[in-house]
Amino acid sequence: MVKFAPLKITQMSTSLQEIITGLKESLEKNLDHTRSEFARLRAGKASPDMLASVMVEYYGAMTPLPQLANVNTPDARSLVIQPWDKSLIRPIETAIINSNLGFAPSNDGETIRISVPPLTEDRRKDLVKKSREEAEHGKVGIRNLRKEANEKIKKLQKDGLSEDEAKAGEDEVQKLVDAYIKKTDEAFAAKEKEIMTV
Questions:
Q1: Which domains does the chain have, with CATH numbers?
Q2: Which of 6, 32, 102, 107 has the most CB atoms lying inside 10 A of its own CB?
Q3: Nearest to 112 by CA among 75, 77, 70
């Protein structure tokens, strides 16, 4: 979490501090969400996160695969899924095939194995594009949080907060927003490098 020095104004209202604290928490959640979306994008290395979005029908309910099985990576190019209930082998296999992740699972009656194929140049470019879109979604979220925080500060000002405190609050909001946009850009740059590294 990004740490900032408290505002210079010592008499800052507790309501204003609550807005800043709430904004920090929301920005951190937004960044975590963006990073988890990046983790789902396959970068050539096998990762259990690749299957996090796969939904399996289990007793009539669509259930996330990680809630029904252990997903391990014995090496950089393969995934092994061990269902807790052996009767789920077929439904899990079908769900993986239907998830459009481009995997061809095989099973031995006990476990499901997936060989993660190396990425083609076109696929890498496509993944970078998807990563850039996720980063942009993250930044839109950050800007929306800034707008909400600034609206709350304006409301406080109407309710008697001094102009100096309101300005200081808005400056603090902008500092936080700049810091989290930078962190989102850094996370995207790391993901792009990971995808493009052959």
A1: 14-39+121-196 (1.10.132.20), 48-115 (3.30.1360.40)
A2: 107
A3: 70
